[in-house]
Amino acid sequence: MSQQIFFENKQFKWINLQNPTKQELDKIAVTYSFQKLTIEDSLEPGHLPKYESDESTSSFLLVRFFDKEHRTLKNTVREFSHKISIYLGPNYIITVHQKETDIFDLIQRKYLSKLDPEKVTSKGILYRIISETIKTYEEPANKMDEEVDQLEHLIFTGDLRKIKIPTLYKIKREATACKKILDYTLEALKEYRLDNKRTSSSQDLYEENVKMLHLHSQIVDDVQNLLSVYLSMNGQKSNEIMQTLTIFSAFFLPLTFIAGIYGMNFDFMPELAYKWSYPICLLVMLIVVFFIYFWFKKKKYL
């Protein structure tokens, strides 16, 4: 376990724990009176965002930042994100995480280094952690949106051969996972706002989360619509091919029937001995072809 004190003043102390074991976290929990269930939540890799507050002055918030794995996992939440557990007390804020992240460096550089240390509050740090966590979903949303636009262009310009179903599935899988995480984050923020005095900061976090949620929801809808259009256009193309084959069959079926009759090896077929049998047969075939052609034209099949 890596334990660091990121910040400390007269009011509170910010302690960061990276990749602690259960035994190490239990020791910290005894010191700061954490709830046992929140310890289990902190150690569970795929736990979704949540907020809890006990009867004392401490509270627990779990958030997840976007960080895509290089391998496919059954749990999409774990594949596309990692968690940060936050314990907030009257004189401390403790962050627990497994995956290395630059979120804390950003907070120290953009927030802590620019303020008088005595004016820094634990809720101010909490606000920055949540805000930076939500912002990690913006870049992947923009990238997926660009990919969707490119795929949409390929579909509607008719170049369907360049479209790969696995590409659409991959985008939908990622966007759905992010949407799920942001949904739970929104619920956690609602609980946090109910449990604490509503401020402009909490409202900003709420609106920021709603914005990200809307982006990923839109991507999921767009991919689903593109998939439907792709399958529909593929079906239409198959129908056009079948229509072409059917038209050819309609022309050649009666001709094949005539050829089949006069191709039979019977000893007595009077027409075969007739002088004009061959040209008459060709003329009948030509009349049949013209009849079928004009009939198809009338019915607008051609």
From TrEMBL:
Kindly indicate whether the keyword Zinc-finger belongs to this entry. Answer: no
- Its GO CC terms? plasma membrane
Its UniProt entry gives the catalysed reaction(s) as: Mg(2+)(in) = Mg(2+)(out)
Q: Where is this protein localized, as stated in its record?
A: Cell membrane
Sorted alphabetically, which keywords does the UniProt record give? Cell membrane, Ion transport, Magnesium, Membrane, Transmembrane, Transmembrane helix, Transport
How does the record say this protein sits in the membrane? Multi-pass membrane protein
Q: Does the keyword Glycoprotein apply?
A: no
SUPFAM superfamilies recorded for this chain?
A: CorA soluble domain-like, Magnesium transport protein CorA, transmembrane region
- GO: which molecular function terms? cobalt ion binding; cobalt ion transmembrane transporter activity; magnesium ion binding; magnesium ion transmembrane transporter activity
Among InterPro entries, the record links this protein to: CorA_cytoplasmic_dom, CorA_TM1_TM2, MgTranspt_CorA/ZnTranspt_ZntB
Q: Where are the transmembrane segments?
A: 245-264, 276-296
Per the entry, what this protein does is: Mediates influx of magnesium ions. Alternates between open and closed states. Activated by low cytoplasmic Mg(2+) levels. Inactive when cytoplasmic Mg(2+) levels are high.
Family according to the record: Belongs to the CorA metal ion transporter (MIT) (TC 1.A.35) family.
Tell me the protein's name. Magnesium transport protein CorA
